[in-house]
C-alpha cells in the first residue's frame, strides 16, 4: 500500500511534467518573431529564417526560397530563382541539402552515343558545396568523370577512373575504382561542371553497363550497389554549406549594422569554411532556438529541466516498457480523451464512429504504403485503405508529431461530430493508439472537384447542370454549417480541392481541420489568417476578422472556377489575368461573361441561368463582406435557379431573340480587334489583385 502510494504519486508527478512539456515544447520560439504571414513550409521542406519565401521573410536575397505552387502539387521549393530544388535546411552548422543533376554518357548496343547524354553545371553563388559531406562519384566500367570549378580565382580540375570487366568484379559499398570511384572535393567550390565519359564507348560492357555516371553526392546518402551500373537516378542529394556573407568574418561583421546574430547568441566561423567572408550564429549556452531572429534564443525552461529530472527518475524506477504504456495512457488523457468524448456525443447514434486499432489501420493501408497516398493537405497525408470487410476508406495521418496539428485533428473531429449531412464527407472513426490520431473517413470515389475541372486530359467535361448541382450542394452545406448546426461553423478553407465527388458526382465537402466553431453571441472572431491563396477573402486578410462571409467569398471563387474551368491563380496567364477573380470580374463588368466561360458550355437553354450564376458569383466576391449575400441566400438562389430553369425556358422563347441581341451588342464592346478589351480595372478589382500578389510574392 505504502509503496504503491509512492509509485502512484510519482506517476502523477511525471504525468504533470509531461503535460507541462507538451504544452511548452511544441511552441517554436521563432514563430513569434517572423512576420505571421511568412510561410514556414513548402511541400515537404520546413523553412527557417534566415531563409524565407518572400520579401520581409528572408535575411537577404541569398536566402530566398521560391516556392512554386502553380506547377507542382505538392509545391516545390527552389533556391532563389534557380532550378535547384531544396530538400532540407538546418540551422546547426549552416547546412542544407539540394538536389543536383547526374551527368551521364550513354551508348547504344552498336556503340553510338545516345542523345540523352548530358554533362552538368551547378552554381550556388555565395554558398559552397560542402567539402566535408560530399564526394565526387563516378559509376561505370569503362569510365572516367571530370569535375571542374573555381576556388577563388584559381581553376580546379580533378577526375577519377572506374573500370571493370564484368558485373561480378564489383563489390557493393566499394568505391575504390572497380565499378565505382570516389574522390574528395576541395573547400570553397561554388560552381562546378561535371562531365562523364567512356574510354571505349561501353562496347565490351554494354550488357550490364551502357552508361557512365558522374555526380557530387552527400556521402552519407549513398551506398554503391552493382545495380547502379545499369540504372542510376537522375538526381542526387548534395550537401551545401551556407553562411552569412558580404560582411567579412565575425570580427568585422560584429561592427556592421546588418550583423545577423541576435540577442543571447554569438558568431562563429563555420569549421568547414576558412573563407574570410562568411559567418554563422549560435545560441549561447543555456539558450536554444533560432539565433538569427530577435529574441529567437530563449532560456531552457524550468519545466524542461524538471522534466529531465523527473523522467530520469522515472526511468530509474520503472522499465522502459511501462513508460511507453504510460505515454499511451497519457495521450488518451489529452487528445484521445477529448476525441472519445466528442465521438460518444455524436447524435444520430445509428452510425456511431468506431475506434480503430493501429494494427487494423496498418493492415488497411499496407503499412502506410506510399502508393496508397491519395492526397496531401497542409497538415496531413490521406491514404486509401481497405478494412477487413474490403470496404474502401480514406485514412488521414499527420505528417509530423506537433501539438498544433493534433489540435487541428481534434478540431476536425469536434466539428464533424456536430455535423450530419449527406454532402459532408462522413467520419467513420479514428485511432488513438498512435502518437498522432488517425482519422478514418468514408472513401469518396471520384476524387476532388479540382481534379475534375482542371484535369486537361479528362475528355468528357462535367455538364453545366451537374456543375450547378455541385455548386448548389456545396452552398447547401455551407449554409447548413453557418446556420442550422448547433454551433455555427465557419469552414475557412473552401476550395475545389476540398470538395470531393462520389460516383454519382454528388459533392461532399471535406477538410474541417481549419474550421472554427463560432459561439452564438459572437458575430466575428479575431484569428490568425488561414486559408488558401486565391480563395482567401481580401477583407479577412486585411482585418483578420473572421466572419461567415469569408466562406461566401471562397465559395464565389469556386463558382467562378466551375464556370470558367480556369485555375484560381495561374502564372501562365498575362499579369492582369493571373488572379481568376480579377480576370472574371473585369470581363463580367465589361459585359463579356460569355467570352470567358469554358467553350461549348453555353447553349440556348442555359444562357440566362449562367448569366444569373455569374451575377451571384459577382455578389459573393464583393470586397466588403457585409455586401455579400449570406450562404443561405446563395443556396436558395442556386436551388431556385436549378428548379425553375426548365419550366422558365419552356415559356420564354420570345425572350431569346432579345437576349441574343443583347449579347451581340455586348460582344461588340468587348472586342477591340486586337484581342484586348476596353475594360479598366476599377478600385474594388484592384483590391483583389493586390491581395493575390501580396501573398504570392
Ligand atoms: C514554376 O515552375 C514552372 C515550370 O518549371 C515555371 O514555368 C514557372 O515559371 C514557375 N513559377 C514560378 C512562380 O516560379
Ligand atoms: C534534415 O537534416 C537534418 C540534419 O542532417 C536531419 O536531422 C533531418 O532529419 C533532416 N530532415 C529531413 C526532413 O530530411
Ligand atoms: C546504331 O543504331 C542506331 C539506332 O539503332 C542507328 O541510328 C545508328 O546509325 C547505328 N550506328 C551505327 C554505327 O551502326
Ligand atoms: C566504339 O569503340 C570501338 C573501339 O574503340 C571502335 O572500334 C568503334 O568504332 C567505336 N564505335 C563508335 C560508333 O564510335
Ligand atoms: C581557367 O580556365 C579557363 C577555362 O575554363 C581558362 O580560360 C583560364 O585561362 C584558366 N585560368 C587559369 C589561371 O588557368
Ligand atoms: C531505373 O530505376 C527506376 C527506379 O529505381 C525505375 O523506375 C526505372 O524504370 C529504371 N530504369 C531502367 C532503364 O531500368
Ligand atoms: C543505387 O542502387 C540502389 C539500389 O538499387 C538505389 O536504392 C539507389 O538509389 C541507387 N543510387 C543511385 C545514385 O542511383
Ligand atoms: C555591412 O553589411 C552590408 C550588408 O550585408 C554590406 O553591404 C556592407 O558592405 C557591410 N559593411 C562593411 C563595412 O563590411
Ligand atoms: C539575453 O538577452 C536579453 C535581451 O537582450 C538580455 O536582457 C539578457 O541580459 C541576455 N542574457 C545573457 C545571459 O546575455
Ligand atoms: C465516377 O466514378 C465511377 C466509378 O469509379 C465511374 O464509373 C464514373 O465514370 C465516374 N464519373 C465521373 C464523372 O468521373
Ligand atoms: C467596379 O467593380 C464593381 C464590382 O467589382 C462593380 O460593381 C462596379 O460597377 C465597377 N465600377 C465600374 C465603374 O466599372
Automatic annotation (TrEMBL):
Localization of this protein:
Membrane
Q: Which CDD domains match?
A: STKc_IRAK
**Which keywords label this protein?**
ATP-binding, Disulfide bond, Glycoprotein, Kinase, Membrane, Nucleotide-binding, Phosphoprotein, Signal, Transferase, Transmembrane, Transmembrane helix
Q: Which residues form the Protein kinase domain?
A: 368-650
How does the record say this protein sits in the membrane?
Answer: Single-pass type I membrane protein
Q: Residues that bind ATP, according to the entry?
A: 397
This one is known as Protein kinase domain-containing protein
Q: What species is given as this protein's source?
A: Xanthoceras sorbifolium
Amino acid at each position: 500500500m505504502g509503496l504503491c502510494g509512492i509509485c502512484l504519486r510519482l506517476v502523477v508527478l511525471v504525468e504533470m511534467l509531461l503535460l507541462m512539456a507538451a504544452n511548452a515544447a511544441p511552441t517554436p520560439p521563432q514563430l513569434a518573431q517572423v512576420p505571421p504571414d511568412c510561410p514556414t513550409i513548402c511541400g515537404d521542406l520546413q523553412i527557417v529564417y534566415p531563409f524565407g519565401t518572400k520579401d520581409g521573410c528572408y535575411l537577404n536575397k541569398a536566402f530566398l526560397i521560391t516556392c512554386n505552387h502553380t506547377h507542382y502539387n505538392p509545391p516545390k521549393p527552389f533556391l532563389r530563382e534557380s532550378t535547384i530544388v531544396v530538400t532540407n535546411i538546418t540551422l546547426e552548422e549552416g547546412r542544407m541539402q539540394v538536389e543536383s543533376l547526374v551527368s551521364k554518357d550513354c551508348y547504344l548496343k552498336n556503340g553510338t552515343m545516345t542523345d540523352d547524354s548530358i554533362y552538368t553545371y551547378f552554381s550556388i553563388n555565395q554558398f559552397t558545396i560542402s567539402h566535408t559531406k560530399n564526394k565526387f562519384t563516378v559509376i561505370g566500367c569503362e569510365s572516367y568523370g571530370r569535375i571542374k570549378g573555381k576556388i577563388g580565382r584559381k581553376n580546379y580540375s580533378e577526375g577519377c577512373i572506374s573500370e571493370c570487366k564484368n558485373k561480378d568484379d564489383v563489390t557493393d559499398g566499394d568505391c575504390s575504382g572497380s565499378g565505382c570511384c570516389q574522390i574528395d572535393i576541395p573547400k570553397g567550390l561554388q560552381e562546378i561542371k561535371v562531365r562523364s565519359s567512356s574510354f571505349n564507348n561501353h562496347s565490351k560492357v554494354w550488357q550490364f553497363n551502357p552508361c557512365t555516371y558522374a555526380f557530387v553526392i552527400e556521402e552519407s546518402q549513398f551506398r554503391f550497389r552493382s545495380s547502379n551500373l545499369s540504372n542510376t537516378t537522375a538526381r542526387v542529394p548534395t550537401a551545401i554549406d551556407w553562411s552569412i556573407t558580404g560582411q567579412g568574418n565575425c570580427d568585422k561583421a560584429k561592427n556592421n549594422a546588418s550583423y545577423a546574430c541576435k540577442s543571447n547568441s554569438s558568431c562563429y566561423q563555420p569549421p568547414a569554411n576558412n573563407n574570410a567572408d562568411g559567418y554563422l550564429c549560435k545560441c549561447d549556452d543555456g539558450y536554444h532556438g533560432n539565433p538569427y531572429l530577435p529574441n529567437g534564443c530563449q532560456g531552457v525552461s524550468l519545466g524542461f529541466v524538471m522534466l529531465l529530472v523527473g523522467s530520469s527518475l522515472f526511468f530509474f524506477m520503472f522499465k522502459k516498457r511501462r513508460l511507453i504504456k504510460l505515454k499511451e495512457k497519457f495521450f488518451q488523457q489529452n487528445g484521445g480523451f477529448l476525441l472519445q468524448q466528442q465521438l460518444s456525443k455524436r447524435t444520430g447514434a445509428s452510425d456511431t464512429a468506431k475506434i480503430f486499432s493501429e494494427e487494423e489501420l496498418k493492415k488497411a493501408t499496407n503499412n502506410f504504403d506510399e502508393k496508397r497516398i491519395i492526397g496531401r493537405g497542409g497538415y496531413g497525408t490521406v491514404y486509401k485503405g481497405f478494412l477487413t470487410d474490403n470496404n474502401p476508406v480514406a485514412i488521414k495521418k499527420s505528417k509530423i508529431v506537433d501539438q498544433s496539428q493534433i489540435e487541428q485533428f481534434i478540431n476536425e473531429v469536434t466539428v464533424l461530430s456536430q455535423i450530419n449531412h449527406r454532402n459532408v464527407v462522413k467520419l467513420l472513426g479514428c485511432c488513438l493508439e498512435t502518437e498522432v490520431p488517425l482519422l478514418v473517413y468514408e472513401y469518396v470515389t471520384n476524387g476532388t472537384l479540382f481534379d475534375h475541372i482542371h484535369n486537361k486530359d479528362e475528355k468528357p467535361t462535367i455538364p453545366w447542370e451537374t456543375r450547378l448541382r455541385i455548386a448548389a450542394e456545396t452552398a447547401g452545406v455551407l449554409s447548413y454549417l453557418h446556420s442550422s448546426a448547433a454551433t455555427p461553423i465557419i469552414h475557412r478553407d473552401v476550395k475545389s480541392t476540398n470538395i470531393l465527388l462520389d460516383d454519382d458526382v454528388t459533392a461532399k465537402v471535406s477538410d474541417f481541420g481549419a474550421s472554427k466553431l463560432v459561439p452564438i453571441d459572437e458575430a466575428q472572431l479575431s484569428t490568425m489568417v488561414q486559408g488558401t491563396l486565391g480563395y482567401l477573402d481580401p477583407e479577412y486578410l486585411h482585418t483578420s476578422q473572421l466572419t461567415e462571409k469569408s466562406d461566401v467569398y471562397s465559395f464565389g471563387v469556386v463558382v467562378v472556377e466551375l464556370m470558367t474551368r480556369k485555375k484560381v491563380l495561374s502564372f501562365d496567364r498575362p499579369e492582369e489575368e493571373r488572379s481568376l477573380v480579377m480576370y472574371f470580374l473585369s470581363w463580367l463588368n465589361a459585359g463579356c461573361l460569355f467570352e470567358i466561360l469554358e467553350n461549348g458550355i453555353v447553349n440556348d437553354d442555359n444562357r440566362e441561368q449562367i448569366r444569373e450564376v455569374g451575377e451571384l458569383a459577382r455578389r459573393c466576391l464583393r470586397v466588403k463582406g457585409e455586401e455579400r449575400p449570406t450562404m443561405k441566400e446563395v443556396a436558395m438562389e442556386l436551388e431556385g435557379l436549378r428548379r425553375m430553369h426548365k419550366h422558365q425556358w419552356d415559356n420564354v422563347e420570345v425572350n431569346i431573340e432579345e437576349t441574343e441581341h443583347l449579347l451581340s451588342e455586348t460582344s461588340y464592346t468587348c472586342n477591340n480587334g486586337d484581342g484586348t478589351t476596353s475594360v479598366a480595372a476599377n478600385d474594388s478589382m484592384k483590391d483583389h489583385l493586390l491581395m493575390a500578389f501580396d501573398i504570392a510574392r
